[in-house]
Amino acid sequence: MAIDAATVRKVAHLARIKTPEDRLEPLAQELNGILKWIEQLDEVDVQGVEPMTSNVSQPLRLRDDVVTDGDKVADVLSNAPKSADGFFVVPKVVE
Amino acid sequence: MTDLTKLTLADAVDGLKAKTFSSEELTQAFLTNIEASNPTLNAYVEVTADKALEQARASDARLAKGEGGALEGAPLGIKDLFCTQGVQTTAGSNMLRGFVPPYESTVTANLWRDGAVMLGKLNMDEFAMGSSNETSAFGPVKNPWKSKGSNADLTPGGSSGGSASAVAADLCLAATASDTGGSIRQPAAFTGTVGIKPTYGRASRYGMVAFASSLDQAGPIAKTVKDSALLLNSMCSFDAKDSTSLDVSTPDWTQSVGQSVKGLRIGVPKEYVLDGMPAEIQKLWEQGVEWLKAAGCEIVEISLPHTKYALPTYYIVAPAEASSNLARYDGMRFGHRAEDFSSLDDLYATSRAEGFGKEVQRRLTIGAYVLSAGFYDAYYVKALKVRRRIAQDFDNVWGQVDAILTPSTPSAAFAIGDKQIDPLTMYLNDVFTVTTNLAGLPGISVPAGLSADGLPLGLQVIGKALDEATVFQVAGALEDAAGFVAKPDRWW
What we know:
heterodimer; A: mainly alpha; 35% helix; 4% strand; B: alpha/beta; Amidase signature (AS) enzymes; eight-stranded mixed β-sheet; 15 helices; ATP binding (chain A); ligase (chain A); glutaminyl-tRNA synthase (glutamine-hydrolyzing) activity (chain A); nucleotide-binding (chain A)
């Protein structure tokens, strides 16, 4: 499954990383090198093996559905690139 | 008076309790050493001198009253991926430059509860993605060790390069670190220090900047096995704020260090013999086997047949999780926001292109690719299945052995700039360490000897889940037998 510049453009968009046109081809080559190495996994027989998503076998804990935290507007906004009147300020989303 | 910065953590804690010296004196000694050394070594990205002295005085007040916790007055370095309230936390990235957490990570909160003093935040590979500390936005850390007859600057390994370098150069008594594929154990091996990654779920991930959540685990880098046990005691706890935190008690692991290993069965996995592995690594491993034999261990050859697939599995699982975790950096609520953009989408993409370094961008791209429609099953799900095979390999041998002995790394520390051409050569650094992350097992690196070039080499002990006690026991025996006392000659 060789990756070409067009695929890199698409994946870079999925990852929301702006990638200049002249970087697409070199990136494709790098990724192909890594993916080719990864493809040795095809040798492994995984018939009937359940995917392993976690090292922890315990079920997720549930807690009481009560408010335990909040009223921290200043804390929440303290690292915002832009904020005003207790809100995040973001560019216009709907034209 | 002796140089206080050369003390072990355990001896320093004892000296503070006995009032042989004060925490303020000890802290000041480290701050002086940092001031002289850090411009060269670049281990700290921020030194919190005022806060440190304030904490030290508070510790001295408690110690004067005969009070204080297990780490009372002990000055530590904190890897810059642990959120520290009111102190910038960057994870080595321009994306988080200027980010000041309004909350404290559970691991560091545990340390302050036990009386520790924070000297500052330690340099690291960007978002812990790297094995040489060269991906840091703050520049590479230098290893205090140098090869015999060469003046080349060496890497301290990564991603916890700042932690390892700071401990090796006596810029803190011990340091916190984190390990996703080997980021505690490889830098420990490269710097002649001890580093342990505990069982996944032992230390809370709350307030740790996330890389790959199913693999990330905090642990210490320290000067001795006992020091690492002492620090790990404090770092671990059950924490309701981390959904994968294990609700288990934390034993006092310092009690395991120095216990006889007689009768323990030690596995030696034949798959860890690599083609082209340097002879001195093989020799060190054989030496480790001999030491444990002499201490009364039974050596058992074991097979972990899926070992060679661990790295390629890791390079699907970790980037996939990273691509999901790092989606939060969109320039909206915190982190870097680009100034120039043409649309909302362009703002996301430009902020991320400006904020993330090259290696992070590479891994996020791989992650997005292996999770994308059409490739998800072939790459991601496949890797999760192989991951289970790797974990089963270990399950299959625990009936025959109590712990496993391997080298920590396939080489000694390398020069800065040496492995940047091909990402794959860099990835191979983690070949011996990454299996325990995938399987969630504890692993420790203990300095065991010097290479022909005079650089430290480490041996790794892997244990069963939640059996850090045996890991510390075996590590203590190796430390005793190796008698590793070498320190780097001060050139910085």
